[in-house]
Amino acid sequence: MSTLLSRIGRRRAVQGTVAGVVALGLLLWWLLPLGEEPPRGTITFSTGTRAGVYQKYGELLRAELREDMPGLKVRLTTSAGSQENVERVASGEADFTIAAADAVETYKIAGRPGADGLRGVARLYDDYVQLVVPSDSDIQTVADLRGKRVAIGLPNSGVRLIATRLLAAVGIDPERDITPRADGIDTGPGRLGEELDAFFWSGGVPTEGLEKIAESSAFRFVPIDESLVAELHESGGATRYYRPTNMPESAYPTVQNGAVVPTMAVSNLLMTRADMDPRLTEWLTRTVLDSRDGIGAHVHSAQLVDLRTAIYTAPLELHAGAQRYYRSVKP
């Protein structure tokens, strides 16, 4: 009798082990697409200025990719921003990047080299236009910038594109009616008041470069009215990607004092080229979506990355590898 019980016990133990192995296999099958080995090689990811959200997001995403694809080396390169990023991917200088939808559309409308080969991977989060002035400034509207020293962003940046369009919408010629300065978020905040009367920034909120000066400097945001955004829409083209919104009161609490700021926003796209390896792109897309909470703990904007909206990468069609991932997780 004891021998029989012993055999039954061993049989159940074996069955339990087999069940465990099967369960582990199923888990790995789910976590690792098609049970494949992770892609290997080297890719270049173009980010942005060192104090901006693109750079921070790129650094954190690289760490996540290292966990999922240990054999993949990710080389980060800083840039002026969206316009330069689009050009780098289109030309093959970079493999992946983040760029605002209006910059992508501007590149496509101009028929620039490689525009037809650009593809979307995921819609990430929104950039908010932030027009910053000293707290005691007499500047109350965009039109009040006439005659002032204004940082309109680095050449080939996304903020330069937006700033010049906003200024034109209120009848200000950036070359003649203001003293334009090519400062970005890395240098603009430190020069406010002494060398600058105002500076434009377009980025996820909060942006580290502004958070730092909020602790020690007195500044405020100039509102951008919905009517001004509507006027931009009338000019057509890439301006259709701008939408009126409010910068949440929680973005910079010590500056906003519980008040929202009327402004406009534009979505950011993670993008690549059509000739990028579909399997690598599928894996990368998976990591981007799976790492939302981890990256979002450090970059607040990344918390808004969502599977339901990630597929909307207009004006770019989705890359084949990204399509494969989204189909695999479709309910």
**Record field, number of beta strands:** 10
- Strand content bin: 15-25%
Quaternary state of the chains: single chain
Structural class: alpha/beta
Mean pLDDT: 90
- Poorly predicted ranges: 1-5, 17-31
Major sheet description? 10 strands, mixed
Q: What count of helical segments does DSSP give?
A: 13
End-to-end Cα distance, whole Å, is 51 Å
Helix content: 25-40%
Tell me the radius of gyration: 24 Å
Query: What is the string of SSEs from the N terminus onward?
Result: HEHEHEHEEHEHEHEHEHEHHHH
Topology:
Blueprint: H1 2-31, E1 41-46, H2 53-68, E2 72-77, H3 82-91, E3 96-100, H4 101-109, E4 118-134, E5 149-151, H5 158-169, E6 179-181, H6 188-191, E7 198-203, H7 208-214, E8 219-221, H8 226-234, E9 243-247, H9 253-256, E10 261-273, H10 278-290, H11 292-296, H12 307-310, H13 320-328
Helix pairs in contact: 2-10, 10-13
